[in-house]
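Q: what sequence does this backbone want?
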């Protein structure tokens, strides 16, 4: 390399290949093959940054260290596969070489150790760097060579640093998973100092484990201590600090590739511009310069150091285990334990007397100052001493590590405590109407009772100073129990006698990872997890749905569409469960024979908490429609969003409203901070539910008057309420669910929401940033994805087509009006906190209802809430204290978790299958064999094979002629007539003739090119829709369809997919059904996914018997058409009034020969007639209906293009004359 060359950078990646760690502790979303692919993608990105960049990859196992790349093995010996079409060949060779060498290396490792040593790997990397420097400067030698005759050609150098140039830089990236081997301490530090001398940066990427060892005797996991210790590396913290590299313990292993690309890919010169993610114990808290003892590999503050080899021990040892150097054991007299201590001797010489305090008068402290490790780089004199010196008035104090909780409700290994089971759900019912027998008078009674208890939000009784301490909220829970729970739970305690508060608790004494691990190991129901769904919230809904015998999934009859709303529900677990369960009802022993009749409407905050429709795979995503309100932000605390969402639901349900209302609530806030969310969730439910509907929402603590009042008011307009703590909800948290059943209203449909006044919309428009936002890690959803979500939400759609009359007179309407006033008052107080309103508004709204100050709500409701709070609080204390004990003892683990998982899934009727990456019908365990033969997964993506001949349709449909009408085989009653439309304006190269269409999933829910069509069953193409939203054809559907134009009531041209026949719908094989049955399934599908204002819809064409066409033609309406100069006959094709222009008839011969249909002249009924035997029967004979593969079709144009040709009017007139 000569001066002036471009910069060259060598990246040396050292990867941990410890087999036991990857098989035992790896994250479920970062399995070993995925890890290797992430590394390969990362090094490929490095190579693409510059043609001069180089890379080396070294694999490390507990037994050996080996170069994976560059490889000394000849390429022909590796039997590499040919590169894929269009792929850079060098990347293919590198990738295949590394994959095969990794496989050989890891399969040859027989060690059961879970520790790894990187010292030799770093040394190898440095040697490789020196070798590359030597190869790049061949004119330099490492030693003086007096014998050299050509001194101009070879320049002698005395130092290896002369080989290094400013144009060739190297850095090492260590990707460590298993624990550090303490034996490598000296060799590793020597290698680090060498790298520092050579100017080689050492970066460290630490992958944390997901669980810990069961016991110290387990040989596979015996090296694992606590999760906190095993997930951080002080050695590599120091290595990165010494060499100027980056140390990062990745917070989420599933995002490894994102962390590698964003943190470790930039060169050293750009790192000052990086904002590193919180590593949970790395850069954010400084470098841990403590050393690890060689005996137990624990971090030590004070230690014994061998004076020969500098080995470190946490306790005195007479012989160094590293270098075998013996040491003299100090002899300590039995009566003088201070003998030999220079400090104590010095104090005695200065006049100190043992047992007395320091100072001239002995007035000082009598105990030595305890050593303390400062947290988060705290300096001396930090103001936490008061919290540690004082003791709360109720005798609770912060528990030190390894100190057992001794509270009244603390956990212990008492054999009398009943073991957990799948039936341990806690349900607390209450009803104020249990003794009310007159159902007709119930709405009036509810209104009368409600009007007497409402408390205006601006009244003095409703206002008060904001609540800042939860330990004062003892109206609905005993003080002792509340303090004990807060002592375990929150980050502060308070002593009422001194008005002092503390910022520490027992959990703060333990590390974050230790608490996370303890929470997993101590919860007996933890292994239930998410199952086939996207998250645990879906499993909670499954738990509660099974608990109440399908209350949510069977709220409507199976043959009707179940309408539900899902609010604050991102990413959509509740909805995914309901759409799946609707197609797999409880106690069903037969496979599903129909597309699930369900339709969901959702609203949630845009951004990280948005719906993750790409993860909506267990249920049909096409049946769910996100909506973000007129403000386009999904904030349900805004009146305008509530009103527009109510209009949207009303338009889609015919003003009837939804059967059920779910709230998955993504805000994990304290009770006081989330009360506005509580209120708006209840408010939204009241506006959307139809009479008798049910509502479930997630709450946290309910200790404040505001929360209790809200539940009390809801009990006035529902027949029953229930507070639920399902076993799928972690027992150590405050989560619980409020279920309201049987909405009491005199209205026939939903109540609706009053339109927001302009003042409210203007006032609240600036509060979007102040609304409670959920915070999640990055790398979740890009800005473009969020924009697409808002586009498909219908946030801009005009939903004013509904004729809904907003309810203002019933108890529900009165309560809606009251809660809206409270919501607006909370908005004003939020602005007052920012200084934008008058200071008098700084008083918070604390109460919603009238009642006696001392007793609370009447009719026993206060006693009900108190008993629920105390039982749940004691249960929570039990598991919080259990979690503390498990955090101190990493070997403890609840042994019943796997058995309980099996029992719970069986009780909830959830299949134990692995969740697939695609939609439910295409999972390997579900896909029908025929579809599996068509859809082929490959490394290039999803590929489609040729259709079997029995699933193909003719490219040209036979045209019916006038001569055919005179044949004896022509029977009008034996033919179905399907009314066709067409593309009046084809500007996007869409197919004009009927084609076979297959759906691969996603549809409008994901905005993907999910639909493929084929004219001949051999060549598949994408349907290039001009609109951004695609038809909602569910995955696993194979249909015969026609692309047509539809026209909205405001005369806008749209596209639609008219379904003419189907072989599969959502993976359900309907080939053997009759044509009429197949079209009924199509009609049910189209009705289910027919959302208002979708730009591209799937529609079911009019289907009639041929003799019925005369009446159909008479009902056609002349309407103006965008693509015709004059009015044309139109028929309505969708629920929102979109129309189609008929352009032809498709005649369907659906009966097998020799059968035909005829009409009885005596009774007028249709019957089956056998042309050969002259047999007549009313009931359909076996095998008379043709299956999909044998159904025949004829085509008739709507208007004849030439004189003398057959058209629809002539055919219909002919049929009418023959009937007469």
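A:
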């Amino acid at each position: 390399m000569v001066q002036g060359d471009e910069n060259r950078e060598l990246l040396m990646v050292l990867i941990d290949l410890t087999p036991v760690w990857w098989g035992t502790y790896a994250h479920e979303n970062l399995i070993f093959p995925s890890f290797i692919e992430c590394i390969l993608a990362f090094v490929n990105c490095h190579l693409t940054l510059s043609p001069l960049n180089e890379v080396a990859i070294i694999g490390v196992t507990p037994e050996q260290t080996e170069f994976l790349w560059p490889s000394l093995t000849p390429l022909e010996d590796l039997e590499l596969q040919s590169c894929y079409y269009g792929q850079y060949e060098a990347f293919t060779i590198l990738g295949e070489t590394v994959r095969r060498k990794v496989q050989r290396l890891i399969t040859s490792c027989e060690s059961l150790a879970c520790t790894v040593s990187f010292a030799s790997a770093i040394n190898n990397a440095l040697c490789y760097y020196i070798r590359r420097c030597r190869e790049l400067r061949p004119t330099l030698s490492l030693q003086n060579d007096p014998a050299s005759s050509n001194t101009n050609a070879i320049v002698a150098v005395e130092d290896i640093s002369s080989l290094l140039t400013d144009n060739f830089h190297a850095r090492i990236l260590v990707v460590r998973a298993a624990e550090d081997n303490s034996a490598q301490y000296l060799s590793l530090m020597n290698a680090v100092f060498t790298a520092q001398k050579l100017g080689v940066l050492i970066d460290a990427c630490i992958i944390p484990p997901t669980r810990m060892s069961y016991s110290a005797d387990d040989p596979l996991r015996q090296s694992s201590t606590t999760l906190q210790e095993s997930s951080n590396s002080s050695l590599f913290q120091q290595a990165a600090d010494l060499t100027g590299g980056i140390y990062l313990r990745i917070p989420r292993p599933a995002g490894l590739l994102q962390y590698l690309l964003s943190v470790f890919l930039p060169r050293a010169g750009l790192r000052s511009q990086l904002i590193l993610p919180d590593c949970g114990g790395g850069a954010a808290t400084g470098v841990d310069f403590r050393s690890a003892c060689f005996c137990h590999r624990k971090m030590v503050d004070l230690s014994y150091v061998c004076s020969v080899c500098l080995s470190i021990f946490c306790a005195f040892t007479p012989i160094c285990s590293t270098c075998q150097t013996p040491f003299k054991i100090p002899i300590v007299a039995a009566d003088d334990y201070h003998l030999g201590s220079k400090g104590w001797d010095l104090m005695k010489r200065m006049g100190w007397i043992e047992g007395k305090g320091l100072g001239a008068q002995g007035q000082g402290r009598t105990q030595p100052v305890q050593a303390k490790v400062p947290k988060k780089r705290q300096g001396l004199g930090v103001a936490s001493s008061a919290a540690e010196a004082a003791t709360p008035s109720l005798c609770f104090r912060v528990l030190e590590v390894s100190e057992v909780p001794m509270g009244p409700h603390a956990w212990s290994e008492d054999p009398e405590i009943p073991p957990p089971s799948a039936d341990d759900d806690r349900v607390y019912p209450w009803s104020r109407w249990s003794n009310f027998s007159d159902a007709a008078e119930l709405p009036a009674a509810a209104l009368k009772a409600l009007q007497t208890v409402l408390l205006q939000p601006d009244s003095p009784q409703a206002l008060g100073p904001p609540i800042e301490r939860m330990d004062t909220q003892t109206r609905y829970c005993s003080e002792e129990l509340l303090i004990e729970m807060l002592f375990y739970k929150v980050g502060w305690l308070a002593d009422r006698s001194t008005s002092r508060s503390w910022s520490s608790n027992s959990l703060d004494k333990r590390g974050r990872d230790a608490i996370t691990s303890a929470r997993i190991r101590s919860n007996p129901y933890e292994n239930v997890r998410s199952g086939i769904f996207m998250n645990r919230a879906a499993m909670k809904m499954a738990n509660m749905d099974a608990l109440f015998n399908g209350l949510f999934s069977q709220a409507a009859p199976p043959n009707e569409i179940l309408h539900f709303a899902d609010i604050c529900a991102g990413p959509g677990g509740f909805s995914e469960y309901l759409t799946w369960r609707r197609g797999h009802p409880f106690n069903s022993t037969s496979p599903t024979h129909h597309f699930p009749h369900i339709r969901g409407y959702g609203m949630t905050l845009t951004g990280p908490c948005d719906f993750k429709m790409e993860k909506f795979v267990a249920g049909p995503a096409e049946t769910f429609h996100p909506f973000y309100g007129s403000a386009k932000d999904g904030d349900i605390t805004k009146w305008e969003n509530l009103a527009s969402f109510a209009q949207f639901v009303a338009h889609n349900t015919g003003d009837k409203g939804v059967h059920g209302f779910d709230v998955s609530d993504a805000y994990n806030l304290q009770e006081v901070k989330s009360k506005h969310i509580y209120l708006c969730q209840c408010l939204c439910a009241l506006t959307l539910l139809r009479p008798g509907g049910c509502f479930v929402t997630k709450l946290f603590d309910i200790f404040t008057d505001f929360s209790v009042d809200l539940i009390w008011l809801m009990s006035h307009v529902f027949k029953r309420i229930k507070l639920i703590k399902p076993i799928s909800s972690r027992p150590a948290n405050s989560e619980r669910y409020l279920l309201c059943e049987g909405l009491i209203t005199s209205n026939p449909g939903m109540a609706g929401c009053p339109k927001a006044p302009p003042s409210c919309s203007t006032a609240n428009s600036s509060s979007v940033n102040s609304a409670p936002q959920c915070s999640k890690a990055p790398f979740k959803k890009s800005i473009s994805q969020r924009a697409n979500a808002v586009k498909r939400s219908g946030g801009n759609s005009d939903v004013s087509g509904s004729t809904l009359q907003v309810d203002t007179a019933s108890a529900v309407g009165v309560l809606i009006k009251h809660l809206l006033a409270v919501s607006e008052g909370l908005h004003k107080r939020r602005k007052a906190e920012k200084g934008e309103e008058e200071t008098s508004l700084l008083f918070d709204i604390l109460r919603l209802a009238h009642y006696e100050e001392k007793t609370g709500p009447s009719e026993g409701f206060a006693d009900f809430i108190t008993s629920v709070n105390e039982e749940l609080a004691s249960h929570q204390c039990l598991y919080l204290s259990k979690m503390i004990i498990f955090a101190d003892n990493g070997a403890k683990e609840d042994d019943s978790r796997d058995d309980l998982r099996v029992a719970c899934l069986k009780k909830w009727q959830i299949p134990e299958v692995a969740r697939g990456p695609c939609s439910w019908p295409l999972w390997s365990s579900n896909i029908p064999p025929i579809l599996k033969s068509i859809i082929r997964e490959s490394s290039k993506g999803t590929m489609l094979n040729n259709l079997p001949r029995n699933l193909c349709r003719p490219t040209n449909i036979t045209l019916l002629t006038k001569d055919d009408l005179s044949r004896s085989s022509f029977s009008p009653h034996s033919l179905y007539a399907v009314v066709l439309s067409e593309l009046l304006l084809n500007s996007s190269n869409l197919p004009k003739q009927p084609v076979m269409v297959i759906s691969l999933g996603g549809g409008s829910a994901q905005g993907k090119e999910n639909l493929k069509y084929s004219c001949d069953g051999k060549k598949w193409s994408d349907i290039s829709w001009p609109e951004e939203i695609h038809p909602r054809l569910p995955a696993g559907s194979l249909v015969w369809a026609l692309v047509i134009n539809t026209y909205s009531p405001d005369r806008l041209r749209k596209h639609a997919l008219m379904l003419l026949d189907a072989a599969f719908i959502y993976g359900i094989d309907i080939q053997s059904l009759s044509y009429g049955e197949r079209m009924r399934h199509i009609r049910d599908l189209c009705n289910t996914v027919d959302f208002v204002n979708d730009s591209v819809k799937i529609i079911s064409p009019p289907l009639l018997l041929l003799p019925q066409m005369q009446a159909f033609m008479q009902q056609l309406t002349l309407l103006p058409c965008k693509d015709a100069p004059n009015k044309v006959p139109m028929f309505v094709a969708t629920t929102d009034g979109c129309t189609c222009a008929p352009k032809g008839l498709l005649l369907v011969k659906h009966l097998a020969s020799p059968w035909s249909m005829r009409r009885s002249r005596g009774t007028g009924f249709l019957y089956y007639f056998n042309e050969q035997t002259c047999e007549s029967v009313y009931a359909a004979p076996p095998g008379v209906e043709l299956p999909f593969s044998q159904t025949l079709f004829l085509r008739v144009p709507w208007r004849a293009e030439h004189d003398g040709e057959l058209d629809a009017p002539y055919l219909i007139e002919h049929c009418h004359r023959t009937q007469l």
